[in-house]
# Entry
Amino acid sequence: MPQLKSSPRTCDKGHIFYKSSNCPVCPVCEAGKPINYTLWIGLAAPARRALASKGITNVNILSQFTEEEILALHGMGKSSIPLLKKALVIAGKILGKRAIQLNKLTNNC
Ligand SMILES: [Zn+2]
# Structure
């Protein structure tokens, strides 16, 4: 079967959705999941998924990443950064300042 740019997928529960990447996450199922990281509730769903894919579920974990690393995540846009920074400020934290080379993020979603 040829890889189309945006092909219809069907998840285990029968939802049909379209993705241009190889990301297997069903947006319908994803939307039904409880949001346990309410600090960034204003964030777009792809950005939240990007964070979740790296296990970033709270500001403590988020603060260990640099802005560059966060921006490199699939689904994360520049507009999401101010929201994340706001969440960090509320928690009294800042984004990581360590060297970017550490734990170079891979992205297979
Ligand atoms: Zn689904």
